[in-house]
Amino acid sequence: MKHPTILVVSDKEDACGFAARVLANEGHAVVSAHRGEAALNVLGKGAVEVMITDMRLPDMDVFDLLRAAKELDPSVEVIVLTTSGPKESAVASIKGGGTFLFLEKPLKDADQLTEAVRKALARRRARPPEQECLRSLSREKEWLETVTQHMRTGLAIIGRDYRVLWSNQVLRDLFGDPCDQPCYEFYNQRRNICPGCGVRRVFEAGAVKAIHEQQGLDARGNPVYSEIMATPITDDEGRVVAALEMVVPVTEKKLAEEKCLQLMERLERSKKMEAVATLAGGIAHKFNNLLTILLGHMDLMALHSSLDAPQLQSLSQMRDACLQMRDLTAQLLAYARGGKYQVEKRSFARFVEEAVPNLRYHLAPTVRLDVDAPEDTWLVEADYSQLKMVLSALLANAGEALSEAGTVRVACRNVMLDAEEAAELGGLSPGAYVHLMVRDDGHGMDAATLERAIEPFFSTRFQGRGLGLAAAYGIVRNHGGAIHLESQPGRGTTVHVYLPAADVPGPKAQSIPGGAGTVLFIEDEPLVRYIAEALFQELGHQTVFAETGEEALRILEESPEPFQWVFLDVILPDMHGSELFKRMRAVRPGLRVIVCSGFSRADEVQDLLESGALSFLKKPFTAAELQDAMARAQAAEADGDRSAPSEED
C-alpha cells in the first residue's frame, strides 16, 4: 500500500479488520495504526485523506491526537468511533479540531461506514482551491524549514521593499529574527540600502547573480563577516518579485586571513630590522677595532709621554670621546642583538634606585620623577651596563614627550606570567619575571606611530636622532625578555619591560692577577695587533701573533712555547672561532683561552665558554679591561666557574 488514503487508528483488531475489509472492497487504500504515535508517523508522510480513530487509545488522549494531526496536515478529515454517541462537550471539542462525523461502535454496518467516508471525502474535495493551496504551501514551508535548518548557509527572501519576508534557522541563529524589518536596518544597522548591495543590483539592474562581501554584527554584537550571493525570484510572467540571499559566514576565514596578513607584515618588518641590525653589527665591529687602537695608544701615551697639563687634559678628553664612541657602538650592537657580555646577578631594585638619579638629566627640572622599587624585587641576571642603556632610552623618550612639565613614574614589580600571557608578549617562556614600568603623562602616540616606535632613528620629534627604543628592544630581547608599549594620544605612554628573574647572587669580583708569560694573540687586524703587543709588554708579557686560524694551529704545533694565555678572536678570515677552539684544544688540551670580539652573538660566545674558554674580553678594551679579563680567567680556572653571557633569546 504505497499511497494510503484512509487511516484507521484503533488497538482493537476487530475494528481495524472490519474497516479495512469494507473500505478495501470500495477501492480505498487503507493503512492501520494501533497507537496514536504510529498514526502521527503515517500522517507525517502526507498521504492520508481521511483518518478514522477510536475514541480511546492506549498511548494518548484522542484530543491530543486530533490537534497533532491537524498540525501535520490541516486538510485531513476525521471520523471518531464512540461507544454511545457524542456528548455535547466532546462534540464541541472535537469539531473544533476539524472532526466531520461520529460513528458508534462496534462497527457492524458496512453501508454506514462507507457513507461516512464518502461524505468526508466529498467535504475534503469541495474545499476551496485557495485554502488547499495555502495548506500545500504550509507543508512546503515546513519541509523547507526542515531542510534549510541543517544547512551551514543562511537563506533569506527579500521583498521588493527590502523587507525580510523569510529567513532560515541558520540566519536567525546568527542575527536573530528580523520580524519583517528592512534587511539593511536589521542586518547592518543602517538607515538606507547598503553600498554594493547585491539585492539592489538584482532589483534595479536585473542581475542574475550578484556576489559581495559584507561585515556586520551578530545577535550578540560580535563582528561577523559574510559572503552574500543574491539571485532573483520571478513569477510566472518572469517579473522579479523578490530576491533570494544566500549568506555564507566566513568570519573564521576572514580572521585567519587578517592574522596571516599581520604575520606577513610583522615578518617584513622583522626582515627589514634584521637587515639594519646586520649592517649595524658590521659597522660596530669595524668601529671597535679602530677604537681599540685609539684607546691603546692613549693609555701608552699617558704612561710614557712627558706631557704638560694642557696636553694631558686634551689626551683625557680624547679618551673620553673614544669611550663615548664605544657606548655608541654598544648601542649598535644592542640593536643588532649581538650579545651581552658582562653578566651578573644582582638586585634589580637597587639597580633602579642607583641608576635613575644619574639619568635625571634626560628630564626637565620641572618634570616630577617618582621611583617605586620595592626591596623584595627579585634578582635579575643581566649585563647591567646594557640595562642602564635601556633605562636611559626610556627616560629620554619620556623627557621628549613631556617637554617642560608632567610626571614620569618608574616602578618595578615581581610577576608570574602564565603560558597565555607569555605568548602574548612575543613568545616568552612562562615563569617568573621582573616587570619594569616607565610611564609618562605626555602627549602619547597614535596607533600608526606606536607601530613604528621601535624602529631605529624613528621619531616624531626633531630630538629623536638615535637608536632609542630600537636599542632597548634589542637588549631586552637578548636578555630573554620583552618590551610592550601602551599609548594613546593625549593620555601618555607606558613602556613595560619584562626580564627573567633569578634567585642566586652572582660571584664576587676577582682581583687582578700578577705574573708574566707568553701570550698567543689571534687577530687579523694589524693595528690591533700592534697596540695589543704594546699593552702586553706593559703588563710584563711577551706576545706571539697569528693572523689566521691556520697560522695559530701551526704555531701551536711547531712552537715549544707553553703559552700562558691564548686570546681568540671569534671572527677570523679563514674559520670561525668555535672551530679553531676545538682544533687548538685537540693540539693542546690544557690551553687557557680568553675569547675576544667586538661583535659576536651571545650564544656563540656562550658556546665557547661552556666548551672550556675561561673569560671574555670585549673590544674595544683598555689596559685595565685587559687585566680584568685575565683576572676573571684566572679565577674561573681556579673555581671552575664559566660565568658568561646567557644564550640569546
UniProtKB/TrEMBL annotation:
InterPro entries, sorted: CheY-like_superfamily, HATPase_C_sf, HATPase_dom, His_kinase_dom, HisK_dim/P_dom, HisK_dim/P_sf, PAS-assoc_C, PAS-like_dom_sf
PROSITE patterns given in the database record: HIS_KIN, PAC, RESPONSE_REGULATORY
Domain PAC: 210-262
Source superkingdom: Bacteria
Catalysed reactions listed for this entry: ATP + protein L-histidine = ADP + protein N-phospho-L-histidine
Keyword list, A-Z: Kinase, Phosphoprotein, Transferase
Record-level Gene Ontology MF annotations: phosphorelay sensor kinase activity
Domain Histidine kinase: start-end pairs: 282-503
Keyword Nuclease: no
Modified residues (4-aspartylphosphate): D54, D569
Residue ranges of domain Response regulatory in the record: 5-120, 518-634
Protein name per UniProt: histidine kinase
Gene source species: Desulfacinum hydrothermale DSM 13146
Origin organism lineage: Bacteria, Pseudomonadati, Thermodesulfobacteriota, Syntrophobacteria, Syntrophobacterales
